[in-house]
Q: What sequence folds into this?
């Protein structure tokens, strides 16, 4: 297959007219397909069916001597703290188990930093003048939105194959107005990158100018391999502590993509000093999170080996979907030289870098053909991709057949957008 | 029985020595009893046993066509919005169904007002200089703490038998720094007062100087009669709207004392304009609350008549406990002229006004004898009861026999504190 960049004008025009004809044909079918969000599919949710009946009676609702149906235990029931501690290789005393959304715990941390400050804050963030936050990009739009909501300036940091560009990070943290960084360290959203040990140690050993700099360590995909065995990952709390930075990091995880996205349990892990601080501030807003659901999860997921076995069943459902996407890209996009990506082994996304200046146009065409996808730019702060290139593909929700249709349409649209761009002579 | 105030010094001393002897005898027993919080007892929790098994399979997890196990539906599942709408006589479109804690929804509202402002705010509350909040007292300590946490000045407002002292309220709202009021309008915490129609209409028709004044209408005990039939209560949203104040009120409720305190569902009701505003701000922090638990509740509680029938079963458990407390007070305290209270017909508390300047001393003695109670002053802003008189008694948790022991000890301590006070000659 000849790369598009090597085609002459006539060949480009011929190709464009052929691809457009194919596109119009699928558009006429009036499809309605969704690849927009990292939403598990029905088959995956069915894997946790038995959790629904695991606490059938009040007499089952005991965690040791604790009646989980009543008020109390703000930090979570002991067995759930133990469960997440094992999963993330931290101490139970370093865990607060929350409600159904780790995002809510992250938001709460930033909101509390804003109104009251963190453990080591000289003043609340709202009183610190300009506040900046580092955003490795492409990244998770909902992370960026939390810090944007509080008026912080979002600083894009380039992603490398081993994590955020640490030269840029180390430069920025000299600025005392830079108060934190968003990280998805394992199977990063959307690139699927696992931070290297070098990057992890550079992050953990940072000496930022701000005494209350916060590493927001969203370990959302900590056990989410869909291709191959579980990949062990170091405990960031311990490493930070070794560098004298015990209070600099806040780790988050949840069972949203283990059991039910709408009804899982979440956690925040941090130094015991930070846990004590947040127990105090959380105590103002809630008496306890849903402890019945915590116990339901512990009884169903039991421990790390049992959970990893469940994740392999998720993997069996997810891998064919990711293969469908990646195989189509390998067949239709990569050889034409109009996009590149790295085949992920875990997480929920394929991160495609389309030919620069074509992502928006391609996704507009995709939308017209009835396929919902994450909007172009969404993976960058303020929704602004400087290259108009990155496209986040979320293959988990649709059945494989629908997915093949949807990715087929995406490929057509990417080709049209690339051909138009080449014909405009802006790139070639 | 002769009121203590009519005893002479010798009689007071004789009585004190007799009561102290009785107190020392119970203290020696080394009891451990808890009347501190409005925590339902085990028998009450058992009433919702069948809710635990009401969604045993994935195929049951549908609300209409909606799979409640997946992401989505920030405002709650349709049937849960409908459920709370019926309960509170509002429209489903005026309801956001939250997680396990209405306190979290209230905190979130105040926190959002602080950082971003409310729908009609000229500026965030954090940028408004001094902010004041009206606190009808005695009231709920957790309410007061939320506004205190954000640095607001808490203004105590006296409670009358028909609600907050409206003369004081109407005076205060002329001040543009006064941005809201906490209300528990039915079976108020702790007095058990039901706001009169006159007070409700005066509140709903207020024209505060602050354009974003917020009535925090915590209808925590909306269906919580334990003595007699359900008492209908007007819809505050409609009344506010009639006075042109549709956006001034936020109503809260939960099933914490209907099903499980640790694992119920909660709601915020407000004008559709307010719901739209909060949907936007909540969307930054959460994708959806636990919709499986919402459906579990709707399937179990069904509708208002079914829920009211369940509340009658709670009532059958609660009434003997309240009777034990009130009968003891009627026997030991009221005739001695050292305390007054109004026998409540709903809610979770008995609010005793002990002889002024004796509450702290009495509760210190109570604690020494192994009984945990809400600390004196807790029902007032900053924990400061100007008369050192109000004592909140929470009879729901202990079994009746334990409760009788505990209230017996409280009565002894109240008598000791009153006798000591009279002997100091400060009151008599």
A:
């Amino acid at each position: 297959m000849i790369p598009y960049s090597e085609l002459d004008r006539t060949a480009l025009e011929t190709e464009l007219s052929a691809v457009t004809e194919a596109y119009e044909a699928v558009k006429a079918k009036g499809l309605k397909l969704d690849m927009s969000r990292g939403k598990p599919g029905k088959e995956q949710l069915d894997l946790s069916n038995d959790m629904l009946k695991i606490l059938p009676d009040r007499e089952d609702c005991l965690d040791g001597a604790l009646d989980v149906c009543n008020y109390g235990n703000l930090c979570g029931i002991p067995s759930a703290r133990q469960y997440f501690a094992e999963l993330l290789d931290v101490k139970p005393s370093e865990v607060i188990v929350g409600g159904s959304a780790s995002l809510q715990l992250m938001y709460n941390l930033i909101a509390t930093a804003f109104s009251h400050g963190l453990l080591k804050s000289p003043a609340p963030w709202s009183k610190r003048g300009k506040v900046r936050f580092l955003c490795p990009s492409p990244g998770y739009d909902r992370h960026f939105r939390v810090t944007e909501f509080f008026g912080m300036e979002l600083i894009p940091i380039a992603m490398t194959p081993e994590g955020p560009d640490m030269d840029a990070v180390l430069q920025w943290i000299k600025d005392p107005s830079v108060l934190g960084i968003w990280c998805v360290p394992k199977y990063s959203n959307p690139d699927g990158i696992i931070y290297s040990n070098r990057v992890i140690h550079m992050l953990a050993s940072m000496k930022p100018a701000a005494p209350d700099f916060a590493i927001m360590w969203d370990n959302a995909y900590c056990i989410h391999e869909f291709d191959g065995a579980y990949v062990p990952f170091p405990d960031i709390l311990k490493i930070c502590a070794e560098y004298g930075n015990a209070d600099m990091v806040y780790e988050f995880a949840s069972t949203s993509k283990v059991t039910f996205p709408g009804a899982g349990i979440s956690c925040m892990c941090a130094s015991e000093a930070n846990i004590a601080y947040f127990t105090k501030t959380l105590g103002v807003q809630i008496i306890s999170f849903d402890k019945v659901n915590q116990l339901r999860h512990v009884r169903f997921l039991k421990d790390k080996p049992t959970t990893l076995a469940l994740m392999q069943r998720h993997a069996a459902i997810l891998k064919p979907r990711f293969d469908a996407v990646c195989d189509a890209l390998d067949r239709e996009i990569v050889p034409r030289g109009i996009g590149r990506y790295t085949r992920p082994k875990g997480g929920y996304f394929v991160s495609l870098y389309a030919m620069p200046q074509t992502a928006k146009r391609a996704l507009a065409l995709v939308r017209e053909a009835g396929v919902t996808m994450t909007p172009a730019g969404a993976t960058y702060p303020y929704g602004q991709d400087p290259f108009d290139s990155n496209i986040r593909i979320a293959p988990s929700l649709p059945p494989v057949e629908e997915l093949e249709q949807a990715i087929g349409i995406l490929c057509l649209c990417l080709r049209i957008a690339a051909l138009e761009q080449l014909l405009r002579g802006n790139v070639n």
In short: Chain B touches chain A through 56 residues (CB under 8 Å). The CA atoms of residues 233 and 405 of chain B lie 36 Å apart. The mean pLDDT of chain B is 96.
